[in-house]
Specification:
The chain has 379 residues and is α+β, with helices and mostly antiparallel strands. It is built from 11 helices and 14 strands. The strands form 3 sheets. It has a 7-stranded mixed beta sheet with strand order 2-1-5-4-3-10-11, with helices on both faces. The chain has a 5-stranded mixed beta sheet with strand order 7-9-12-14-13. A two-stranded antiparallel sheet has the order 6-8. The radius of gyration is 26 Å and the shape is elongated. Bound molecules: adenosine-5'-triphosphate (ATP) and magnesium ion. Magnesium ion (MG) binds next to helix 9.
């Protein structure tokens, strides 16, 4: 007869597992550090990531395993100084022993005294979505340079072409007027496109203040319902107590217009539904990569649709300019959205499967204190 494996009754183990058992089973590496920054706990996933047994990890300083100039240490000290959870996305951790890992990091103070720290390493594969939204900022910047160049090089000759077509229109026989009109319309279309791209290079200061995001969403909804989303039902679920966003109202309208337009274009011809929702989320702070600043992004706004979902092959570069799966799309909508959200210090992520695509934007909230309002975060 096989020997019993556990001393506790199985149903007791299942109902009340020890925290240690849970942490050991967790696929995410977790370590705890004391005030002297020695490792005092490492779960099995952490042993695996560090390629070291608990014996080699416990009571050793973290610097024995991760190079001292790693951003991990700044994050730990930030969390200790703040007595708060701090997150940093897309951190490369590398040592000859453990190799290279690309992770998101969460550092939280441990216990009441708060001198210890718990570190959770979230492998990049799990966090790919967020990583993506951080990389698109570079893409938006390169578009900015290109937009400035295009605006300069294309718009002026276009104005000339348009003017010439207009003059011709007055003299050509009636049957050819359609051709001159075509030239004029196409020139206009190119100018509109260039204007749209020009928003990328509009580097002037944003006009930021307290923005009622529900008013923004309602406006977008009205525009949508009277134009591109006439075939779609739009439902809104707002958190009425939501504090104002610290943002630029016109730019935020642009963001949600683009998202709702994409959602409407994705919806089926009949039975299409778009959901707008807002919520307050008490969350962790987001560390801005490469800086010491942190932002608190408690305002979450989502745009959901019941279309067929985002094509698999463009998901990896969705926020990059000129990425489109539409025959007449310019592929600029989402890169503009990403640029504006990034300028607000916000975060955008998406989740897509057939009949449910959600774009979620997290934004900072407006505070009365001028210094807080001016920094847009760090609280
Ligand atoms: N809600 C959605 N559902 C399904 N696919 C989407 C959704 N939103 C965006 N996409 C996909 O992402 C692509 C890029 O969107 P983006 O708004 O950047 O450009 P576009 O809509 O193609 O063109 P533009 O917005 O410039 O007219 C779209 O072509 C579409 O394939
Ligand atoms: Mg679009």
């Amino acid at each position: 007869m096989p020997a019993p494996l556990k001393t506790q009754r199985p149903e007791v183990v299942a109902r009340h597992p020890e925290p240690e058992t849970i942490l050991a089973a967790l696929a995410l590496p977790v370590i705890a550090l004391n005030g002297g920054r020695n490792i005092v706990y490492a779960n099995a996933a952490a042993e695996q990531m560090f390629q070291a047994s608990a014996n080699h990890l416990l009571d050793h300083p973290l610097t024995a395993h991760i190079p001292a100039d790693s951003p991990v240490f700044a994050l730990i000290e930030q969390s200790a100084a703040d007595c708060n959870t701090v997150a940093e996305y897309g951190v490369a951790i590398e040592s000859p022993r453990m190799g290279r890992h690309f992770v998101n990091l969460l550092a939280s103070p441990l216990g009441d005294a708060g001198e210890g720290i718990v570190l959770v390493f979230q492998p990049r594969s799990i966090a790919e979505k967020i990583d993506r939204q951080l990389t698109h900022r570079g893409a938006a910047r390169s578009v900015a340079a290109m937009a400035a160049m295009l605006a300069h090089e294309v718009k002026n000759p276009m104005a000339g072409i348009r003017g010439a077509a207009q003059l011709l229109e007055e003299t050509v026989p009636p049957q050819d007027k359609a051709l001159t009109r075509l030239i004029r319309d196409e020139a206009d279309r190119v100018c509109t496109l260039v204007d749209r791209m020009d928003t990328f290079s509009a580097g002037g200061p944003m006009n930021r203040g307290a923005v009622n995001i529900h008013e923004v969403l309602d406006r977008v909804r009205r525009i949508a319902e009277s134009s591109f989303a006439r075939h779609v039902r739009i439902a809104a679920v707002y958190d009425p107590s939501l504090p104002p966003v610290y943002g630029d109202r016109d730019q935020l309208i642009q963001v949600f217009l683009n998202l709702v337009k994409n959602a409407a274009e994705a919806c089926p011809p009949t039975g299409g539904e778009i959901g707008l929702a807002t919520a307050y989320q008490q969350g962790v702070k987001f560390a801005v990569p490469g800086t010491n600043s942190r932002v608190h992004l408690p305002l979450a706004i989502s745009v959901r649709d019941n279309g067929e979902g985002i094509p698999e092959d463009i998901r990896g570069c969705l926020f990059e300019p000129f990425v489109t799966a539409k025959p007449k799309g310019s592929g600029l909508g989402l890169s503009l959205v990403a640029k504006i959200v990034g300028d607000h210090g916000g975060v955008i992520e998406f989740d897509s499967r057939p009949r449910q695509t959600v774009f979620r934007i997290m934004l900072p909230m407006y505070r009365e204190e001028p210094e807080h309002a001016a920094t847009g975060g760090d609280r």
